[in-house]
Write a structure and sequence with these properties.
The protein has 351 residues and is α/β, with parallel strands linked by helices. The protein contains eleven helices and 19 strands. The protein folds into two domains: 182 residues, TIM Barrel, CATH 3.20.20; 123 residues, Beta Barrel (Lyase, Ornithine Decarboxylase, Chain A, domain 1), CATH 2.40.37.10.
Length: 351
């Protein structure tokens, strides 16, 4: 059996997460953000499963992602968040790919209207979208590009106690009102926005992280099911004496005699180096701490509490027991980064 680390991908968990988000969304269509290779999970896995679950609209970041997605879900509606260059318009038209318009210049491009684009207005993120100081020109822009969707993006939806999301929603409402009969179907909510409630749902929601088992805020898990279970094998066991150092830089000094397992996985596989001396893994039902630094292909784990451990034992790095959000918290990051860093050399098993 290969010693390579593996990802076990659960169709059932992905479907349940989609159905849960759909139920929260009420009458709004539940689309899916599937950019960055479905947040690292893999579009070849995720897209067909989501289509079978009832998802009909997908969002990606780049045209090449959209082309790959079109081959998997031929009848889906596919939007490209980053829009298109002039050189990409013909390809998009041939593949029925819809750009998201982020600038007035693109909105006034006569070639864009035939693509049934979305138009993105900035309501407070100040990242992509037609900025607020140009909103007085939106009627002309919408008349020109005839969008199929009006969208914006919430900046602080994962912090519901702050007023920013309500301020953005009010701004979005003003824009919709100013467009009157020209206003197309509207979309504001990602996963965190869906969880804010019905006023944010409009006609279409576009969840991302919740589909794949994570929470917008890792400190506040929302109970989505683990789509990814990440396993790696014990490839060597050693007895370490008190006072011995472990790993690069000798950063960990054993406080007593330890049984240490070397696990065949490292930052080249996407296991964040920030988890050095902080992360935990599950070994035969026991939570065991990482000791020493995470290196390129290997980590070392204190398995002194585990009886009868042997080489070849599979260890859960992330999954139902060691949740994505828990890993993110230990690494002082978010689940989005943990998923999108998953390495290409990991074996993938679909269940």
């Amino acid at each position: 059996m290969s010693r390579k680390p593996r990802l076990i991908l659960s169709k059932q968990a992905l479907v349940k997460n989609y159905q849960r988000l759909s139920s929260f969304s009420g009458k709004a269509e539940c689309a899916a953000s599937i950019k960055a290779n479905a947040y690292g999970v893999g579009i070849d896995f995720a897209a067909p499963v989501l289509w079978e679950a009832g998802c009909r609209t997908f969002f990606v970041a780049y045209l090449d992602e959209a082309i790959a997605l079109r081959a998997l879900v031929p009848d889906a509606v596919i939007y490209v968040f980053h829009g298109l260059t002039d050189q990409e318009v013909e390809t998009a038209l041939a593949s029925h790919i819809r750009p998201v318009i982020n600038t007035l210049g693109d909105a006034l491009n006569p070639a864009i209207a035939a693509l049934k684009p979305a138009i993105h207005v900035d309501t407070g993120m100040r990242r992509l979208g037609i900025p607020q100081y140009q909103h007085d020109q939106l009627i002309d822009a919408v008349s020109q590009c005839q969008p199929s969707l009006l969208m914006s993006h919430l900046a602080l939806a994962d912090e519901p106690e702050r007023p920013d999301s309500e301020q953005q929603r009010a701004q979005f409402e003003m824009i919709r009102s100013s467009l009157g009969m020209l206003c197309p179907p509207s979309s504001l909510a990602n996963t965190a926005g869906i969880l804010l409630g019905a006023p944010y749902h409009y006609d279409l929601v576009r969840p991302g992280i919740g589909l794949y088992g994570g929470s917008p805020n890792p400190c506040d898990p929302k109970g989505f099911e683990a789509v990814v279970t990440w396993h790696a094998q014990v490839i060597e066991l050693q007895q370490v004496r008190a006072g011995d150092t472990i790993g690069y830089g000798g950063s960990y000094v054993a406080p007593r005699q330890l049984s240490v397992a070397t696990i065949g996985l490292g930052y080249a596989d996407g296991y964040l180096r920030a988890l050095s001396g902080r992360g935990e893994v599950l070994v035969e039902g026991h939570r065991c701490p990482i000791v020493g630094r995470v290196s390129m292909d290997l980590i070392t784990v204190d398995v002194s509490a585990v009886k009868d451990i042997k080489e070849g034992t599979w260890v859960e790095m992330m999954g139902p027991a060691v949740s994505l959000d828990a890993v993110a918290q230990k690494a002082n990051t978010i689940g989005y980064e943990c998923l999108t860093r998953l390495g290409a050399r990991l074996e993938r098993v679909i269940v």
